């Protein structure tokens, strides 16, 4: 069986197994429920919302969402294997490394552009918020370093980018999914998130293995958390 090699064009369109509508909508709805339910509860029962309860809610909620999502997406991943378009072990490991290097190179460029535009280097508001929460509720480290990257790569790379790529090709799919990826983080570093998204997207398009963008994303989050918590 052929394997997707490193020279495969990123413009090779994705294909999805049947019944994609129900299989792909459920993970999105679950993610939205886990993400916004504490906000709703805070409006009606604010005394129920504590840092610990919120941290546990996200850890348990995202864990269940990930398990259900992989079950629903398994037909797609199985299809890639049957088509022989997934990378082999060597290319998978290689693209994790290349993706990490690409991400940091692009982030440096994005930082330089943003600094040139604003005239100053500004810290990420979203990252600082998350670091403050992790210091207060250590269990949130699991969500930030592992669960968050897994569910975000499922949603933005496989479901959103994958479906758009199947219809419109790489660049439109990348543009739409990356803008939404940046916006949902509600941060002042828009170009940085787009740059990160490009590395995640290219790595997934090259390998058709979700473990690749997940590993790159998780490595980045872990490194940022370690750096911030040591400061």
SS summary, helix count: 8
Mean of all residue-level pLDDT scores: 89
Main beta-sheet strand count, sense and barrel state: none
Structural class: mainly alpha
Instruction: Round the Cα radius of gyration to an integer and report it.
Output: 18 Å
Strand content: under 5%
* Shape descriptor: globular
Task: Tell me what you see in this structure.
The chain is mainly alpha-helical. 79% of the residues lie in helices and 0% in strands. It has eight helices and no strands. Helix 1 packs antiparallel against helix 2, helix 5 runs antiparallel to helix 6 and helix 5 runs antiparallel to helix 8. It starts with 19 loop residues before the first helix and ends with a helix. The model has no long low-confidence stretch (mean pLDDT 89).
């Amino acid at each position: 069986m052929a394997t997707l090699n490193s020279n495969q064009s990123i413009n090779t369109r994705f294909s999805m197994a049947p019944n994609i509508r129900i299989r792909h909508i459920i993970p999105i709805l679950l993610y939205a429920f886990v993400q916004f339910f504490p906000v709703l509860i805070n409006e009606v029962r604010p005394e129920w919302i504590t840092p610990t309860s919120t941290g546990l809610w996200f850890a348990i909620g995202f864990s269940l969402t990930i398990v259900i999502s992989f079950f629903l997406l398994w037909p797609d991943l199985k299809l890639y294997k049957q088509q022989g378009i997934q990378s082999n072990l060597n290319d998978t490991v290689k693209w994790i490394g290349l993706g990490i290097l690409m991400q940091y190179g692009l982030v440096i460029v994005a930082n330089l552009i943003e600094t040139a535009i604003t005239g100053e280097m500004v810290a990420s508001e979203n990252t600082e918020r998350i670091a403050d929460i992790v210091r207060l509720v250590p269990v949130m480290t699991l969500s930030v370093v592992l669960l968050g990257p897994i569910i975000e790569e499922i949603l933005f790379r496989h479901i959103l980018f994958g479906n758009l790529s199947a219809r419109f090709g790489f660049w439109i799919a990348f543009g739409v999914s990356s803008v939404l990826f940046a916006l949902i983080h509600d941060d002042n570093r828009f170009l940085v998130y787009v740059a990160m998204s490009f590395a995640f997207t290219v790595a997934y398009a090259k390998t058709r293995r979700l473990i690749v963008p997940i590993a790159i994303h998780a490595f980045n989050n872990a490194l940022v958390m370690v750096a911030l918590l040591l400061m």
